[in-house]
Amino acid sequence: MLRIAVPNKGSLSGPAAEMLHEAGYQQRREAKELRIVDPVNEVEFFYLRPRDIAIYVSSGRLDIGITGEDLLIDSGADAEVILPLGFARSTFRFAARPGTATSIADLAGRTVATSYEGIVAKHLADQGIGASVVHLDGAVETAIQLGVAEVIADVVETGTSLRNAGLEVFGEPIMKSEAVVIRRTDATADDGAEPKVQQFLRRLQGVLVARTYVMMDYDCRVEQLEKAVALTPGLESPTVSPLHNEGWVAVRAMVPSKEAQRIMDDLYEIGARAILTTAIHACRL
Ligand SMILES: Nc1ncnc2c1ncn2[C@@H]1O[C@H](COP(=O)(O)OP(=O)(O)OP(=O)(O)O)[C@@H](O)[C@H]1O
Ligand SMILES: O=P(O)(O)OC[C@H]1O[C@H](OP(=O)(O)OP(=O)(O)O)[C@H](O)[C@@H]1O
Ligand SMILES: [Mg+2]
To answer: What is the 51 CA–ligand 2 centroid distance (Å)?
Structure first.
């Protein structure tokens, strides 16, 4: 049975459960459940604090886990990213009151509050900056107002939390992060879990593709086919079928959903008609 760690709370937990559900895995019904078994897929899910997941996975007790890339790096655990999942995207940045700091060099001799002590301490050491780090569990934006630190290092998505606290980012982003699937670093291909791990990854990749692509169908004149196919190259190559009306073909190809409207306009311009898009519910590439 494959043993998988899933975030039990916080920003990662809802989207992770949704993705697993879309991939056909049974998920818990109540937020208080800490472990469930999906007998059909032979998977056991453990609902753990996102911050602890890399530690469980690196210990080898659990085969794989879903966590944040920043949490993995912060933990220093011996685990690696095997699949980025495209949600919980954020950057990790320094921030302070406007006018207090403009670059990382301004941190020398100052105090930085953060929930990600591992990332911050390493970044400061790499840059040769001597600053003290205060660990706080959350709501670190308030640390400046309350005088616990002059600078914070925190997760930034929209920047709303910083603005509300009257703070501004400065310096280069320390790192970018998103939700990821992780596995212990020394896992080998002859690991008994390997086939199940690969099947799990294929399923999640299928969900990612279904979320980012749509299926496009249209009719066009044979003379326009090459131009049309250049607009919709598909993944391998589009399917082209003859129509009953001579001189016309039907074309079918996957296209990135973000570009679907522009591609439909361009196809119309070159004379394609009956242009349709449909959602992809699941897929194996
Ligand atoms: N507002 C946000 N937008 C995108 N990702 C976020 C956001 N806040 C946290 N994350 C990401 O979620 C992960 C942290 O999850 P965690 O559950 O520890 O914290 P949280 O979501 O802030 O929950 P809480 O603070 O309630 O415990 C990290 O990978 C972080 O980058
Ligand atoms: O840039 P934004 O869109 O505002 O998002 C970033 C904020 O979201 C998270 O906070 P959360 O609400 O999880 O509270 P916390 O600080 O206590 O973790 C994170 O720690 C930032 O504070
Ligand atoms: Mg938080």
So the answer is: 15
Mean per-residue pLDDT for 2-8?
97
Mean of pLDDT over the chain: 96
Proportion of the chain in helix, strand, coil states, percent, rounded to 5: 35, 35, 35
* Ligand 2 binding site (Cβ under 6 Å of any ligand atom): 138-139, 141, 154-161
- Domain at 2-87+178-187, CATH from 3.30.230.10, 3.40.50.11460, 3.40.50.1360, 3.40.190.10: 3.40.190.10
Where, residue-wise, is CATH 3.30.70.120 in the chain? 213-279
Q: What is residue 45's three-state secondary structure?
A: strand
Q: What are the Cα distances from residue 87, in Å, to 14, 90, 107, 177, 187?
A: 11, 9, 31, 9, 25
CA of 10 to the centre of ligand 1 (A): 6
CA of 228 to the centre of ligand 2 (A): 45
Dump pLDDT digits (tens) for 75-87.
999 999 999 999 9
Residues around ligand 3, an ion, CB closer than 5 A: 138
- Pairing, β 2-7 against β 43-48: parallel
**Which ligand is closest in space to the CA of residue 143?**
2
- Judge contact between 119 and 73, C-beta under 8 A: yes
Which CATH number fits the domain 90-176, given the four candidates 3.40.190.10, 3.40.50.1370, 3.30.450.40, 3.40.50.980? 3.40.190.10
Taking the C-alpha atoms of residue 89 and residue 5, their distance in angstroms, rounded to an integer, is 19
State the complex-level ipTM: 0.96
Ligand nearest to the CA of 68: 1
Q: Which tens digit of pLDDT belongs to each residue from 141-161?
A: 999 999 999 999 999 999 999
What CATH number should be reported for the domain whose range is 213-279? Answer: 3.30.70.120
Model confidence, pTM: 0.92
User: What confidence score (pLDDT) does residue 95 get?
Assistant: 98
Query: Ligand 2: which residue has its CA nearest to atom 19?
Result: 155
Give residue 186's pLDDT: 87
CATH 3.40.190.10 domain position(s) in the chain: 2-87+178-187, 90-176
